[in-house]
Every structure is written in structure tokens, then in C-alpha cells.
Specification:
The structure holds two protein chains of two kinds.
Chain A lengths: L5 H10 L13 E7 L5 E7 L19 E3 L5 E5 L8 H13 L6 E5 L23 H28 L7 E3 L2 E4 L2 E4 H9 L47 E6 L7 E4 L3 H4 L4 E7 L2 E6 L2 H10 L4 E3 L8 H12 L4 E6 L2 H6 L3 E9 L11 E7 L2 E6 L4 H12 L6 E5 L15 H12 L6 E4 L2 H6 L7 E9 L5 E10 L9 H4 E2 L2 E2 H4 L12 E6 L15 H18 L4 H8 L4 H13 L10 E10 L2 E12 L2 E12 L6 H20 L5 E2 L2 E2 L17 E6 L17 H13 L16
Chain B lengths: L1 E4 L2 E4 L8 H9 L17 E4 L2 E4 L12 E3 L6 H13 L9 H14 L5 H8 L9 H15 L1
Helix pairs in contact in B: 2-3, 2-5, 3-4
Classes of the chains: A alpha+beta, B alpha+beta.
Pfam families (chain B): Fer2, Fer2_2
Protein name (chain B): Isoquinoline 1-oxidoreductase subunit alpha
Keywords (chain B): 2Fe-2S, Iron, Iron-sulfur, Metal-binding, Oxidoreductase
């Protein structure tokens, strides 16, 4: 995901319906604190005019706050991002705890309310949202200042109470001390809240960090191991009805007519209503709703605007497009001339399927009328967009849409939907029943696998060559695939001169020093809804680039690591990762007979990850034995969470390399559940080792960058072991011959 | 429908054909047992019936009449405590949604086999999908719990 520039805010907001009345925030940051009742100290870091801040609520955690200190000394960090497993509640709390010199055991996390001005993603502009692996990166300065300000106010309160100079006071593990005086945060919270806001916040020198860079227990481990963690699917409201939607087989079809009689006879079914997505069955419990949907056999669909093409037809069209010039995504030197003069050339093609995200928690959302508006309970990843879309449907203002953000059972990009699809569906159902009961819209797994918003199908065509002395002579790459940014609120910043950056990122901005480069893009229109999928464009571009680099290195008779190092001479982060990786993965040794080793290196979300995969060939079958990764993500806030994200990213990427595939036949999705859309399972999970490059730079992304290098490293390992080159995903291992 | 739920006698008024999963979640109100696929393909809904792990989405409420059902909320005993402790020590969870089912399957495995090999773990746990791919830590946590039970 790319960073929104201020000039794009207005255009972006115009696309949100209705446009929320948000002023572009001023970049003059300052701190403001206010006391909540019961002696809590609440600190907020604001970007914007102070007048807007004056209206502070008088109880509970204040909506303009990041830090709350309770009388019992627990410190609650308000988390403006969604935690969908990436561990951001732990990460953001660590940043605050560090600057406060708190003890880790006193730290808590709570999801912040939806508020685009107070809790916006600083890299998204006036939008609260989580994505692009930005949570820690955009919060780093903000939360260091919030924690540091809280610390200074506690110190000032203690100095006043004890009549000692502030600089005589130390804080260690949440206890303030000066001479014989000691106090906890809770004892001083009320007094601290009355202190003036520090004009300047003194931040720690990173060499003095005590918590950052160490292994801290996750804040969510306890509740996620005893059934207590609450996900949207677990929300129960008085009188709540569960809704499931009967959906069309083909994308773009709409309801023509239906007969609700049979469904209404199912015990527990309360109502059957038509909504834009299909026909919704509302019932007293999930089982009744599902049975009601089963009974709904008489829906007629209008398929006049439906997508009827299948995967084979689309791929044919994409291949034809790849033979024609596309829009210019990158051009330097003369790629064609370079290739013409090359000593050795390659011409390759790569096909990538549609991919479902398939988070373990099927998509769902509770919506109910409250006060003068509505309240949404969901694992919300794009709060501002969900507010705007819901407000448009309900005919209210965005600020009348409250969102209770909950733990999300996975997302992988699916919940960050510019159309807010499942939230919108829940709102249309609530509207259809005149808001008379809270509605819990539940998708089944089949709804999810068949429901679209996939990583788009892509096709890449590559021509490249090397010179006699082993340099890249030229590189031509044509990319064909749908844009999921055009026509959305994010078009203004993602699409420039017709080129959707999310389709070409990782290729058009390759980190390799290639003098003669041409990258072109075609963005065909298909009615299959598409969306970003963990690591977005890098899911396909990194594969093509890293396989091609490997092929060129072999064509030049060069070692793949040395070949890369020469192309990365002015890229110290990349070479640092490569060198650490080569050492940890024993790159210099041979893996042995019947085995293979492959490497990939890629930068995404400002983080560099290198991956080495070791495989064995057993009875003609490929077994992935071990994956060694090296990562430079700036300062490692929580090294163990970083390791977990890379481990999980490897598993996620391996699933895509080996199995994941959504196909269409005459516009109908051919997969339905985990028996046909195959997830990676325990027995296929290799051993994963993660090594972090020490860094003094600000933190960069970690949720996504572990994914892109997996498939190319595996392709390169398979070639190393067998001399067979597998390019398109998922790999057809049944075609493999040892 | 009468059965023992987490050690206590319960009478649940619901259609006997209703899957145990939905009876637990929507009628009894125990939401720790998760819906993931509705077809016994992912293991998120795993509970114990008379001590054996079963997929509650494919178990009718009438099938558990007179039996003992343990859900994630009722995990305890020597093995259960060791498994949960290992999960926390190694910070296995990411999104956490599948972990109730993972823990129920792991408790089932370790109740039968106190020293499982990697192959034993593959066999016992392959039915439990984790899209966050926390498998490496699940494996390590099962070994950790086994070593603490020895």
C-alpha cells in the first residue's frame, strides 16, 4: 500500500459516500492531556487545531487519548489499529511502556473508538485504517511522544508532592523514586493529570531501551487460549437476529424474484428480505438461518450484467494483451536494444490465479440502532470507510456510526475493503427490517470462498538477457491483471496516469540496478471483485522478479547470491540482509544429493526480507524441509512478534505456492470450502528460522513482507534440485519428474 | 436434551438435529468454540465428547444426549493445564480464532500419547487449519507440554 499525499485527501474524501466533513489535519503536532474522572490520567497526541480538542468527554477512556492510567496503576494503550493476529496490540503497547518506563505486567490494550481525526493512520491521511503493514511505522513517533509525555507529567506530579527537583526522580518498572520517596503510577495519576502538558517531550535514546528489542509476552495470549477473546462472531445483543444471504452464482447478477414461503416455514426463521447482495434470511439462531437459506430454492436471478467468462478464457485474453504495448509503469535505458545485444536471453511467462483470503473467522458483522445512529461490532480494519458507507445506506452522518472494533479472526487484507462490503450488507439488512432488531450478518465458508474480493488473476510476460560479462543487458516485463483501486476512494493516490501502483509495485520499482528496464501494465475489466491480499502486488511481482534474477544468474553462470550483491551495490539494507542470510543458511555449502536450495530477496512495505528454502525430493515428491529468513525492519520493537509474522508469512506464502487457487467456469467459482480451496496444514509446515538485522532506523512493516519471497525461493530450490523450472502458481507438483 | 457440559448437568432446549456447535454458541452461549467451515474440514469447532475430540459442527445435539462434553471453557486437568500453559509460554497465537480447536485437539492427542513424535503431531493436528500458519509454534508447544507432563 502506498502513502497518501496531502494533495490526494480531498479527491479521496469526495469518493467516500457521503463525504465526511473532515479537515485535512495540520502537521503541527502537539500534546494535550485531560483528566478523566476517577483520577485517570489520559494522554492524547493530536495533530490539529486545539479548539477541536476542547470538547472532552468526562468519563471513561477519552476518545482523544492514547494512554490511560488507572488508579490500580494499569496503563491502557488505546489501539487505533485492528489486531487481526499481527500482534499490533502488543507492539503499540510496547512503545508506550518503553517511554513511560512502565513494567510490562501493568500494560493493557483496548481498541480505540472510530474517529478519523484522532485515530487516523498518519500514512493514510484522514482515514482510520490498518493496512500496508503500517501500524507500528505510523504510530512510532506518535506513541513515543504519548508515552514520554505521560512519564514527564508523572514526574512533575511527584516533584510537586515530594518537594524535590524533577531531575532527582527516576522511574523503573513503573515505580517512581527519589531519595526515600516511592510511588506507583496509580497513586500519582490524578495529580499528573493536572500538570501542564509538556511543550517538548524528551524521548529516550534508543540505546537506553529496556523493553523494545526484548521478548515480551503477547498481551492477547491468555484470552486467546481459554475462549474468552471476543470476536464479532461472538457478539450477542438482546433480540438479535442472525442473517445469512442467498447469493447469486455469478458476479454481477442480481435478484429478479423470489418466493419466501418455504424459508419462512423453517422454525426460527423470522423474516426474508431482498437486499442488493441477494436474499437475506433472518432467524433466531444461526442454524435456523442456514436451514432457511437451504429452503430458499425459488430465487430467480437477473444475469444480464453477470460475468460469464471462465479462467481459461480470461487467461487467453490476458496472454493476447501481453503481446501488445501496455501503459508505461517504468522505463529507463532501452530494454529492447539491450536484450538484442545480450549474450544470453530468456523469454518466460507466469500465470497467477485468483486467491481468496479465507480468514479463519468467516466474515460477519453485528449492526444495531443505538441513540440517534447505529453501532457496528466487527473486526474493523477500515473504520472511516465503514462509517461513511454505513452512513450513506442508513441516511445518517458518519459520526452517527459508532464502531466497536473487536479482535479479528484473520484478515490478510480481506477486511480492508474499499467497498466495506459485508458491513454494507449488514446495514442494508438492518434498513430492510426498519431497524427493529440488531442484525448479525454471518457469512459461511462457502460464501467466503465464492464471494469474490480476491487477489486478482495476473499474467506476466518477461524478456531479459545478460551480457557476456554477467551483467543484466535488458529487462522487459508486461503485467496483465485487474486493478482494484480504479473506481475506489483510493484511486487518487494509487493510480497515476492509468497505472495502478499496486499492480506493479515490486517490479516497476525493483531494487536491482537494471539500466535497461521496461515494465508495462494492462488492467483489463472483469466483473470478479478483487482486493489486496497479504503483500498486495508483491504477491506476484516478487515471484517474477526473483525467479527471473535466478534464471539470469544461472544463464550468466554466476552464483545467485553474488549476482544479486553486484546488482545491489548501493543498497546497504539489502546487502546486509543478503549477507546475514547467506551466513545463517550455509549458502556456501551444497545441500546434498536429492536436495535443493533456493534464495529470494525482496523489499516490501519498506522492509527487506531474504528467504532461503531447502527442499528434498522424496519419491518424486517435493518436501520443504527448512526456510531461513533474514529481515531488516528497522528497530525490532518485539523480536518474537516479528519472528511470528515471518513464520506465519512463510506458511501463508507456501500455501499460495503449493495449493491456493480460485478458478471460474463460465463465471461460476469452482471452489467452495477447505476441501477444494486447500489451506496449508501442519504436516506441510517446514521449520522456519528468523534472523533480524540489527538496526537503528525507525520501524518498518512486518505483517506482510514475509510472504513475497516464499514462492520464488521455492521455485529456485526446485530448479536447483531437479533442473526443472516451475513458474506459474500454484506449482503443479504432479507434473514434477525427479 | 440433557448432557454434561464442562462438568455440570445441562438441559438444552433445542432441535436435536441442531449441530452441537450452534447449540453451544447460540443456545447455551458458550462462544469459545468457533465456526470455521461447517463441514469438519478445519477443526475450529473441536470439542471433547466423552474425552475424545470431535468436530461439533458435524455432531448433532441429539448425539451427545447423556454424554460428557468439554469445550475450551472447561479445559483443565493435568493435560489441559499443561497445554494451555505451553501455548502461553511460547506465544503460539496470532489471530487466535482457530486456537480453541487446536488446543482441544492437542489435549486429545496428549491424553492418549504423552510423548508424541512429529509424525504423531502431524496425524493428530492435520485436521486443524490455522490460516496464520502458527503450526511451528503449535508443534513446539505440544512438545513443551509433553515434556512438562513427563
Amino acid at each position: 500500500m502506498h502513502i497518501i499525499k496531502p494533495a490526494d485527501y480531498a479527491r479521496m474524501l469526495e469518493r467516500l459516500a457521503p463525504a465526511p466533513a473532515l479537515a485535512a489535519p495540520s502537521r503541527r503536532g502537539f500534546l494535550k492531556a485531560a483528566a478523566a474522572i476517577s483520577g485517570a490520567l489520559v494522554i492524547g497526541v493530536r495533530l490539529g487545531p486545539s479548539e477541536a480538542f476542547a470538547a472532552a468527554p468526562t468519563d471513561g477512556p477519552m476518545p482523544n487519548a492514547f494512554v490511560k492510567i488507572a488508579p490500580d496503576s494499569t496503563v491502557t494503550v488505546l489501539i487505533k489499529h485492528l489486531d487481526m493476529g499481527q500482534g499490533v496490540t502488543t507492539g503499540l503497547a510496547t512503545i508506550v511502556a518503553e517511554e513511560m518506563d512502565a513494567d510490562w505486567s501493568q500494560m493493557r490494550a483496548a481498541f480505540a473508538p472510530a474517529d478519523a481525526q484522532l485515530y487516523n493512520n498518519l500514512l493514510f491521511g484522514p482515514v482510520q485504517g490498518t493496512g500496508g503493514s503500517t501500524s507500528v511505522a505510523n504510530s512510532w513517533d506518535q506513541l513515543r511522544k504519548a508515552g514520554g509525555a505521560a512519564r514527564q507529567m508523572l514526574v512533575a506530579a511527584a516533584a510537586e508532592k515530594w518537594k524535590v527537583p524533577a531531575d532527582s526522580i527516576t522511574i523503573e518498572k513503573g515505580t517512581l523514586k527519589s531519595g526515600s520517596h516511592t510511588a506507583s503510577f496509580g497513586e500519582l495519576a490524578a495529580d499528573a493529570a493536572r500538570q501542564p502538558i509538556p511543550a517538548e517531550v524528551k524521548l529516550k535514546d534508543p540505546k537506553d531501551f529496556k523493553l523494545i528489542g526484548t521478548r515480551l509476552p503477547r498481551l492477547d495470549s491468555a484470552d486467546k487460549t481459554d475462549g474468552k477473546a471476543v470476536y464479532a462472531l461472538d457478539i450477542r445483543r438482546p433480540g438479535m437476529l442472525t442473517a445469512v444471504i442467498k447469493r447469486p452464482e455469478r458476479f454481477g447478477a442480481t435478484v429478479k424474484s423470489f418466493d419466501a414461503a418455504a424459508a419462512k416455514q423453517v422454525p426460527g426463521v423470522v423474516d426474508v428480505v431482498a437486499v442488493p447482495a441477494g436474499v437475506a434470511v433472518l432467524a433466531q439462531n444461526t442454524w435456523a438461518a442456514l436451514q432457511g437459506r437451504e429452503a430458499l430454492t425459488t430465487v430467480e436471478w437477473d444475469e444480464s450484467n453477470a460475468e460469464n467468462r471462465g479462467t481459461a478464457e480470461l487467461l487467453d485474453e490476458y496472454k493476447k494483451l501481453a503481446d501488445t504495448a501496455g501503459r508505461n509503469a517504468a522505463k529507463r535505458g532501452d530494454a529492447a536494444k539491450g536484450i538484442a545485444g545480450a549474450a544470453k536471453t530468456i523469454e518466460t511467462e507466469f500465470a497467477f490465479p485468483y486467491l481468496a483470503h479465507a480468514p479463519m473467522e468467516p466474515l460477519n458483522c453485528v449492526i444495531e440502532k443505538t441513540g440517534d445512529g447505529v453501532t457496528i461490532h466487527t473486526g474493523s480494519q477500515f473504520q472511516t470507510i465503514e462509517q461513511a458507507v454505513t452512513a450513506g445506506i442508513m441516511g445518517i452522518k458518519p459520526e452517527q456510526v459508532k464502531i466497536e472494533t473487536l479482535w479479528a479472526g484473520g484478515s490478510f487484507g480481506r477486511r480492508a475493503n474499499t467497498a466495506a462490503d459485508y458491513v454494507a450488507e449488514a446495514a442494508t439488512i438492518l434498513k430492510a427490517i426498519d431497524g427493529r432488531a440488531p442484525v448479525h450478518l454471518v457469512w459461511t465458508r462457502e460464501d467466503d470462498i465464492k464471494g469474490g474480493y480476491y487477489r486478482p488473476m495476473f499474467y506476466h510476460k518477461v524478456r531479459a538477457g545478460v551480457t557476456a560479462d554477467g551483467k543484466i543487458a535488458g529487462w522487459e516485463q508486461r503485467i496483465v491483471g485487474q486493478s482494484f483501486m480504479i473506481g475506489t476512494p483510493f484511486e487518487a493516490f494509487a493510480v497515476k496516469e492509468g497505472v495502478d501502483a499496486t499492480s506493479v509495485e515490486g517490479a516497476s520499482d525493483t531494487h536491482y540496478d537494471i539500466g535497461n528496464l521496461m515494465v508495462e501494465l494492462h488492467s483489463p475489466q472483469v466483473k470478479v471483485p478483487t482486493l489486496w491480499w497479504r503483500s498486495v502486488g508483491h504477491t506476484h511481482t516478487a515471484h517474477v522478479v526473483e525467479v527471473t534474477i535466478d534464471e539470469l544468474a544461472r544463464a550468466a553462470g554466476r552464483d545467485p547470491v553474488e549476482f544479486r550483491l553486484e546488482l545491489l551495490k548501493d543498497k546497504p539494507r539489502h546487502t546486509g540482509v543478503l549477507k546475514l542470510l547467506a551466513e545463517k543458511a550455509n549458502w556456501g555449502t551444497k545441500p546434498g544429493a536429492g536436495k535443493g536450495r533456493g534464495i529470494a530477496l525482496h523489499e516490501s512495505f519498506n522492509t527487506v526480507v531474504g528467504s532461503v528454502i531447502d527442499i528434498s525430493v522424496v519419491n518424486g515428491q517435493i518436501k520443504v524441509d527448512k526456510v531461513v529468513c533474514a529481515v531488516d525492519c528497522g528497530i525490532a520493537v518485539n523480536p518474537d512478534v516479528i519472528a511470528a509474522q515471518i513464520e506465519g508469512g512463510v506458511g501463508f506464502g507456501l500455501g499460495a505456492a503449493l495449493h491456493d487457487e480460485i478458478t471460474l467456469d463460465n463465471g461460476v467459482v469452482e471452489q467452495a470450502n477447505f476441501d477444494t480451496y486447500i489451506p496449508l496444514r501442519m504436516s506441510e509446515m517446514p521449520k522456519v528460522e528468523v534472523h533480524i538485522v540489527p538496526s537503528a532506523n525507525a520501524p518498518t512493516g512486518i505483517g506482510e513482507p514475509g510472504v513475497p519471497g516464499v514462492a520464488p525461493a521455492l521455485s529456485n530450490a526446485i530448479f536447483d534440485a531437479t533442473g526443472q523450472r516451475l513458474r506459474s502458481l500454484p506449482f503443479r507438483l504432479e507434473d514434477f519428474k525427479a | 436434551m440433557k448432557f454434561t457440559l464442562n462438568g455440570s448437568e445441562r438441559t438444552v432446549e433445542a432441535d436435536g438435529n441442531m449441530p452441537l456447535l450452534w447449540a453451544l454458541r447460540d443456545v447455551v452461549g458458550l462462544t469459545g468454540t468457533k465456526f470455521g467451515c461447517g463441514a469438519a474440514l478445519c477443526g475450529a469447532c473441536t470439542v471433547h465428547v466423552d474425552g475424545a475430540p470431535v468436530r461439533s459442527c458435524q455432531t448433532a445435539l441429539s448425539d451427545v444426549e447423556g454424554k460428557s462434553v468439554i469445550t475450551i471453557e472447561g479445559v483443565g486437568g493435568e493435560v489441559g493445564t499443561a497445554v494451555v500453559a505451553a501455548w502461553r509460554k511460547l506465544d503460539v497465537v496470532q489471530c487466535g480464532y482457530c486456537q480453541s480447536g487446536q488446543i482441544m485437539s492437542a489435549v486429545g492427542l496428549l491424553s492418549e500419547n504423552r510423548k508424541p513424535t512429529d509424525e504423531d503431531i502431524d496425524t493428530a493436528m492435520d485436521g486443524n487449519v490455522c490460516r496464520c500458519a502458527t503450526y511451528q509454534r503449535i508443534r513446539a508447544a505440544i512438545h513443551e507440554a509433553a515434556s512438562n507432563l513427563a
